[in-house]
Design a protein that fits this description.
Order of helices and strands: EEHEHEHEHEHEHEHHHEEH
CATH architecture: 3-Layer(aba) Sandwich
Largest sheet: 8 strands, mixed
Distance between the termini: 78 Å
Strand content: 5-15%
Structural class: alpha/beta
CATH topology: Rossmann fold
Strand order of the largest sheet: 5-4-3-6-7-8-9-10
Shape: globular
Helix content: 40-55%
CATH superfamily: NAD(P)-binding Rossmann-like Domain
CATH class: Alpha Beta
Amino acid sequence: MIVYGIDISHFLQALIAVVIVGFLTIVAVLKFYATVSCGYFRQQVKMDGKTVIITGANGGIGKETAKELARRGARVIMACRNVDNANAARDEIIKTTKNENVVVKKLDVSSQKSIREFAEDILRTEQRLDVLIHNAGTAENKLIKTEDNIELTMATNHFGPFLLTHLLIDLLKRSAPSRIVVVASELYRLASLNLDNLNPSSSWFPAYIYYPSKYANISFTLELAKRLEGTGVTANCLHPGMIDSGIWRNVPVPLNWPLKLIVKMFFKTPLQGCQTTVYLACSDEVKDVTGRYFMDCKERGLSSGATDMSKAKKLWELSEELVNLKQTDQKI
């Protein structure tokens, strides 16, 4: 079609080509910026003789964290719910790092029974624990109650790590200086912590529970660090970045369609995402640092709400009740 001497079809083709090239250029620039601005832990710190537990280590940033610490010589205990997947990941890590001291132990961090069985096994078989990394996490799109009658996302992301820390704290203290690392998220800023509804029984959008669970991670870490002062055990939390990992599998249709494109184009790889965890696990720069929040291997500030220690203390007290701490359990 010719209008005023212009072939409209050719004009539209050229315009579409310009738009596509412009879009791809913007994507490339943003991807390049995301890559170069990502914090990398490049120090060659060795971890020989040290024992590390990583929950949820069979995939994503947990697997990459296990690989990085195994490469540095650590004894790595992969605490995973799916043992078959974990064994396959372990074999790959051993082949890649040449470190045979990588073991798999079953742990469903959403189950208090499983946590207690795992802790009993660790206390019976391990002489030391230098780093405990709370990495396992989930974001469910349905409201599911666990066998302990706790909402699954909160059970996995907060209450499980809370109970496991209590059960292993004596071993961490005996191994001091030692470290606790909690994988939180900047998405906590999209939520508030409702202390009257820590174990929700209903939700119009269950996936949202992930955000307050990450808020709880931060409050827990700050209170934990306060309670551990003078013990030689540090506790810090981190935002790993937005990661291209399995945690997004539960986002419902149709929200997951554009999200998949965004994830592949702009999110960090698991290797990039594990850098701050590895930094907090072994860097000498943070050996005496505790009760802080990190991103891209640097300390970052928190919202005023997240640093409210009265709220953190109340969360702790309510969590003690919900995880059914026994009189024989070590109180922190």
